[in-house]
Amino acid sequence: MELIGRAEAEAIAAGRHGEPFKALGIHPWGKGQVLRAFVPGAERVTALTPAGEVALPPVPGVPGLFAGQLAGRVAYRLRAEGHGAAWEMDDPYRFGPVLGEMDEHLMAEGRHMRLWQRLGAHEMVHEGVEGTHFAVWAPNAQRVSVVGDFNFWDARRAVMRKRGATGVWEIFLPGIGEGTVYKYDLLGPDGAPVPQKADPVGFGSEHPPATGSVVRRLRPPSDPPLPLSRAAANSIDAPISIYEVHLGSWRRKVEEDNRRLSYTELAVELVDYARDMGFTHIELLPISEFPFDGSWGYQPVGMFAPTIRHGTPAEFRALVDAAHDAGLGLILDWVPGHFPSDAHGLGQFDGTPIYEHADPKEGFHRDWNTLIYNYGRREVKNYLIANAVYWLAEYGADGLRVDAVASMLYRDYSRPQGEWVPNVHGGRENLEAIEFLREMNIATYGRVPGVMTVAEESTSFPGVSRPVHEGGLGFGFKWNMGWMNDTLDYMQRDPLFRKWHHNQMTFGMSYAWSENFILPISHDEVVHGKGSMLGKMPGTAWEKFANLRAYYAYMWAHPGKKLLFMGQEFAQGREWNHDISLDWHLLDDPAHAGVQRLVRDLNRVYRELPALHVNDARPQGFGWLDADNAEQSIFAFSRHGAAGDEPVVVVANFTPMERTGFRVGFPQDGIWSEVLNTDAGVYGGGDRGNLGGITTEGVAWHGQGQSALLTLPPLSVVMFRRG
């Protein structure tokens, strides 16, 4: 009697059998058991059992397939011989499943918030044997295999077990461990091959342009990241000054063929620099693995894998830990808005659009030539929300800055009429994306207390940084793109014409309390032909630096947390290029070193004076003293902290004319120290000012009961603190 049917045997040998666990391994047969093994390249196979060796005869006409009878169900290994070689191995088809019923239940409902602990590739000991468990979601595939060098990239050798209605496939492969390169090989619903795929929940990747996933160890579940007292550092009352960094071009080893710094090197050099500069947080452009350097990480494929460009996941974790040891928070740019269509990625993953929308009117971004996640599908929403929690819980990141939120909120984003699909109410809002963002914020704040989430959102969508229970999206902060666009436009104008655009510097106060804002001067302002921050400034070389210093001081004094992209802190002269290092040699020039010194002092003053940060998001923290002096392009305002905090008065002169004897009202009488003057010689200025401070006199001015006569240097900002 044949020990396996011909059709089934041929399907196994052809790699078309979708349920090999029902055929291979040990199964009841008559009054005993049958053991079937598929070992391509073998001429003889023997089962090594506790009771002795059992020869498994070849199945006639099906090379590589062997089958023999056993008296009972026993543990076994296989010994194979062929072509002059002999080898022993554990048969993957002797092992039971790893995933449990609760995993299946939570995955089916889209509520598995620790999804990465079950999907992906995990080293483990299973049924007494060391190896790696692989699990992947591919609901419409006819067959899924794990392939790699360990099985000659032969999709017939490690066909996975499908776990019922969940669409998840799994297999335990003995002897596979850390550093193993692998992919998934799939047959689509029509039986046609799908391009081999990287693991959607892979924890490591090969160096681009190679695209395989790599088995990498995570921190054991019993050894979570040490708890951080980060809630206070991430609150709206805290001084938050963010240094935005692209790891690949912050600094390079020019003498070593322009190589990138490793996570290990960055843990020292970048962390020490950011701490010395007085920043409170480092924000990294996306570090999830991505294939194309020119995307800067904004087109990720490996959502769970820190890019190998700088080292392993363990080395990335060391960078996060080093930031924490230095008292710095670490924020990661996170991209749930779109993903690239690279063949090894998520697109048409199992031969069908399971991660993306099928209709390009919903599922394709014209601006970036990328695909859009189907936020209405519970498994996709689960995948993304679990990914957000993963970076915060697994690596201890302090926050996520969510990229391109506006593109998610609106179905007609960057689409002409007729090329977008309205929502169920006929409107333009993407209701599924809105619900996804709310659930993501609930999950991250609920499961990893003390973190922050930040939205890059450029529209007037209401309540972006308001709690979900109040109808908001639930973000902690929102980038203030309007403030950035208005003030940068003003600063780029010749001072002669600034008086006609005075409101661009004041308009932001009309909506300053509508959200918890971060003022961003990000990488987007120094790319795509926009030039550098220094290059945007008008005037002579001296005036360019003076304008930039004054603008930074105005920004640090203005309500809202701060963000500055790398290189801007020392007035890099050229536009940012992601392929080369910043121009650190410019610090040999006193003018550039002066801007760097100013930014360091702005961070210090911002941290030390509660009036400049405690009420960043509350109207009681700000008061105009002179908002309407368009003719002289002068702005004066006061900042206020909590009860008992000394107020700060800020006066900006955005013309190249020195103003002497200029009267400004002060909210309290007495002696006021000049705590910062952007015209100071140490910053590259002309050392004009108020000799360290002023004393008010009883002359009512600007609605205050006292005032003082000031000297306002050209293109400058001066700050005063009472006492």
TrEMBL record:
InterPro entries (alphabetical): A-amylase/branching_C, Branching_enzy, GH, GH13_cat_dom, GlgB, GlgB_N, GlgB_N_E_set_prok, Glyco_hydro_13_N
Alphabetic keyword roster: Carbohydrate metabolism, Glycogen biosynthesis, Glycogen metabolism, Glycosyltransferase, Transferase
EC supergroup of this enzyme: transferase
A GO BP annotation: glycogen biosynthetic process
Gene Ontology cellular-component annotations: cytosol
Signal peptide interval: none
Enzyme Commission number(s): 2.4.1.18
Pfam families membership: Alpha-amylase, Alpha-amylase_C, CBM_48, GlgB_N
PANTHER family named among the record's database cross-references: 1,4-ALPHA-GLUCAN-BRANCHING ENZYME
Function as written in the Swiss-Prot or TrEMBL entry: Catalyzes the formation of the alpha-1,6-glucosidic linkages in glycogen by scission of a 1,4-alpha-linked oligosaccharide from growing alpha-1,4-glucan chains and the subsequent attachment of the oligosaccharide to the alpha-1,6 position.
HAMAP family with a match to the protein in the record: GlgB
Protein name listed in UniProt: 1,4-alpha-glucan branching enzyme GlgB
